[in-house]
Design brief:
The chain is of the alpha+beta class. It has 2 domains: about 100 residues, no CATH class; about 120 residues, no CATH class. Helix content is about 45%, strand content about 10%. A 4-stranded antiparallel sheet has the order 3-4-5-6. Helix 3 packs across helix 5 and helix 10 packs antiparallel against helix 11. The protein starts with 5 loop residues before the first helix and ends with a helix. The relative contact order is 0.12.
Length: about 260
C-alpha cells in the first residue's frame, strides 16, 4: 500500500506543524543540537525537515550525550572499581540504550565492538586506542540505522510505540503519540510510509483503546486490504466523516477508471 494516494492526502489534511513545534522531540533537539556543532562528522543526521528525521536526529544526540557522560564518569573512579556492577549501574543510570544481540548499545553511531567500552569494559576508555575516541571518533562512525535497525526504534532512544510487524516485508509500524502519526519503517531505518491521523481537533474524540485500534488498522495495511483500512480510519475515529467521504469518493472514481 506504499503507493496509495491516501497518505499524501492525509499528510496535507492532518497538519501537525504545531504539534511538532511543541513536541518533546523538538524540545530535546533544541536543547542538545550543539552536539552536531561539536561533532561535524555527525551532521548528516542533523536534518529535522520532517518528523521522522527529527526522531532520528534525537537518537544521534542522545548517543552523543551518553558518550560524553560515560567518558566523564569513568575518570572519576579508580580503574579497579570500573568493573564493579554497582559502578556500571551508577554510570548508566537513566541512560537510553538499545539491545542488540544481547548487548546494550549506548552510543548508536559506534559499532557493537566499540560500544563494549561504553557498556561493560570502561577501563578500555582510559588507554589507547579507545581513549582517543573522546576527541576523535570520526573514523569509527557507522550508520546506526542500517546497523541496529528496529532495535533503535523499539528502544528507549525514542518514545515510539511499536504497533505492528510484517515479517514478510521486514517492516514495523510505530506510533508517535506527540505527532499523532504512524511511521512504517524497514529494518535499515528507512521510512516506507508516514500516516498522519486526526485531521481536525475534536474535544469529544475518544482515544480510548487507541493502541489496540492502531494495531487492527495496521493489520489491514500489511494485508493490503485498502477498503478495510479506509473504513477503519473512520470507524476508529481516526479521521472525520468529511475526510472519510472524500477518500471513498476518490477511490470510487479510480475504480470507475480502472486505476
Amino acid at each position: 500500500m506504499a503507493s496509495f494516494r491516501l497518505f499524501p492526502y492525509l499528510r496535507q489534511k492532518c497538519d501537525k506543524t504545531s504539534l511538532i513545534a511543541s513536541s518533546r522531540a523538538r524540545a530535546f533537539y533544541e536543547d542538545n543540537s550543539e552536539g552536531f556543532v561539536k561533532y561535524p562528522a555527525l551532521n548528516k543526521y542533523a536534518n529535522t525537515s520532517d518528523p521522522f528525521s527529527l526522531i532520528k536526529a534525537d537518537i544521534i544526540l542522545e548517543g552523543v550525550n551518553n558518550k560524553e557522560s560515560i567518558e566523564k564518569s569513568v575518570e572519576l573512579y579508580q580503574k579497579a572499581d570500573l568493573s564493579k556492577p554497582s559502578i556500571r549501574e551508577a554510570i548508566h543510570q537513566r541512560m537510553a540504550f538499545c539491545s542488540y544481540k544481547n548487548k546494550n548499545i549506548y552510543v548508536p553511531f559506534l559499532s557493537p565492538l566499540v560500544n563494549q567500552a561504553y557498556n561493560k569494559n570502561f577501563s578500555l576508555l582510559l588507554q589507547p586506542p579507545f581513549s582517543f575516541l573522546k576527541k576523535d571518533f570520526d573514523e569509527e562512525i557507522i550508520d546506526p540505522f542500517d546497523t541496529y535497525g528496529f532495535n533503535l526504534f523499539s528502544s528507549s532512544f525514542t518514545d515510539l510505540v511499536e504497533i505492528a510487524t510484517s515479517k514478510e516485508e521486514n517492516l514495523k509500524a510505530y506510533y508517535d503519540i506527540d505527532f499523532e502519526t504512524i511511521f512504517v519503517i524497514d529494518d535499515q531505518g528507512r521510512m516506507e510510509e508516514e500516516i498522519r491521523l486526526f485531521d481536525a481537533p475534536d474535544p469529544l474524540r475518544s482515544k480510548t483503546h487507541l493502541i489496540s485500534k492502531l494495531e487492527a488498522l495496521m493489520a489491514f495495511y500489511f494485508a493490503s486490504d485498502k477498503e478495510s483500512f479506509i473504513d477503519s480510519l473512520y470507524n476508529f475515529s481516526l479521521i472525520t466523516l468529511k475526510t472519510y467521504r472524500y477518500i471513498v469518493a476518490e477511490e470510487e472514481k479510480k475504480n470507475a477508471l480502472g486505476l
